[in-house]
Amino acid sequence: MAAQDQASPQTSRKEAAPALAKAQAALTHGDSQGAIRILSDHLQIQPGDSSARLMLGQAYALAGQIDLAESELQNVLKMAPENFVALAALGEIYEQTGQPEKAEAMLARAAKAGHDQPEIRLEWAIVLARLHRYKESQSALAGLAPPADSGKRIAFYRLKASVASGLGNSVTAASEMEKALALKPQDPALLLATAAAQLQRKNWQRAGELANVVFTQTRDPSAGLLVLEATLGSHGDVHQLLEQLRNTAVPQAEEVAFRQRLAELLIANGHVSESIDELKRAAELAPARADLLFDLSLAQFKAGQLDGALNSAEKSKALTDSAEVEDLIGDIQEERGDNLMAVQSYQAAVKLAPEEEKYRISLAVELMQHQGFDAAKVVLQQAEESQPRSWRIQLALGMVEYFTGSDATASSILIHAADLAPDPEVALTFLGDIQMSQTSVPDSAAVDHICRYSDDHPQNGKMQLNCGALLFEQDYVAGNRTHVDEIVKRLREAAEILASDPAPHCELAKVYRSMDRWHEALPEAERCARMDVNSAEAHYRLAQIYRRLGSLEKSQQEMKLYEGASRRQADENTRRDETMKAFVYTIRREAQSSKQ
């Protein structure tokens, strides 16, 4: 029995060799069914022959009998778990059948078991890239030499470009695409792909040259769009190119997408008015698409075509009402001066999307703009109940309090908004403005927050200014001069950063004057008055300094300027109106970003 057992493997291999050779010959000639018959017959006699079973799995795969192929390959792995050929073949099957996660797992095992066989590592890298696992794909490709075959080499460079692009390395991506293009320099697909890579790199000239080769030869609309993007990126004249694109023949099934993309490129580069005709054409071609009408309305609104914008928005609403379109209609009605209709639209937006802060903020801001502060406060308090940790809602609540004269309450709420915000700068900016405008002693918690932020962001001139100025106000009232050096340092840094802003110089003049350092106060006060000729306070302060230093004639001249500026001086309501404008712009921008 032992002798038979010892002879058996040798006999099996001898018997298997002719069967495997015949099956391989059949596969070589494309006869996968013939190979399947030969191998199946052989495995009836030798069911444990893993080589035959592996070949059978491959034959099934070539014949398109995927389930049978997977079954046979799994049987091979039961017998030989580290058979890298079977692992790779299974990985390829999973990839072809849309199961990239399973494919990746098999190819990872195959690469390890096959001692980093180049072909397997390359296939593994491809699957990793398709899974957007670019760092791992880059590692799989590391050290691999480009294939000798030209077609495979092009695919290799394109893969490396894709991985580099996925990692945000546009320079390397463009370089790899240029290598691929060099192997087939007249290929339209490679020209366009390389142009797209150069666009990502912002190499506008090279991108335009490559795409224009294809566009000139073929009038391919996609090539034309790449030329347009490159021209817009380089701030070139697009009028002639736009005319060519508008006259380009586009397949009917692709025209809507073409017009939409053309409009998107124009809008993204500030050519809003030019985008309107493209969006109109797209909306005509697809009249049932509410999104196209919405985009058209938004472009018309930005271009100041308010009647057209309202008409397009109403058509979009008739197709599909949404909070987004109601919010846009509210913006349009506000711009048209119909605040009652604007309020109704904003209320409709809130009703359609009660959990989205953007629409509640839009409604509250509309009410605030027309002095409906109590109503705005109710809207924001309702929003606060559902979203207590929304810093934007807290910012708006704080500003409502400020606009109604409750500066202390406003500051407290804005401090809370700053604590909630991922970046507190917006809330702290308004907090600083409120504190700077007060005649009372600055709030110590507010000053602490502003100064901490300025310490963490030393290049933020506005925060350095506010911190220095507020520290001075605190110390001046308390008769404390221990922070003078810090205050002066902050204000000088602010003056350097905010080169065109008179405020740091005005504040420095106040500090030096309070310390009787008149000769140092003078140049700062002169700069302050020269840079802000309408500031009554600046002229009055400079007049006092001139008098103190004995320049009576100059003092009298400054007093005359002070009297004229006093008559023109903005009152508290005007200052609040200016703050309102800044707030409305900021909060709408922030609310919009929260929805994106």
Describe this structure in words.
It is elongated, with a radius of gyration of 36 Å. Helix 18 runs antiparallel to helix 19 (323-336). It has 33 helices and no strands. It has helices spanning 2-28, 32-45, 50-62, 66-79, 84-96, 100-113, 118-130, 134-141, 150-166, 170-183, 188-200, 204-218, 221-233, 239-246, 252-268, 272-285, 290-302, 306-319, 323-336, 339-352, 357-369, 373-386, 391-403, 407-420, 425-437, 444-456, 461-478, 484-497, 503-514, 518-531, 536-548, 552-568, 572-595. Among the domains are: 14-154, Serine Threonine Protein Phosphatase 5, Tetratricopeptide repeat (Alpha Horseshoe), CATH 1.25.40.10; 483-590, Alpha Horseshoe (Serine Threonine Protein Phosphatase 5, Tetratricopeptide repeat), CATH 1.25.40.10. The chain is an all-alpha fold. The longest helix has 27 residues, at 2-28.
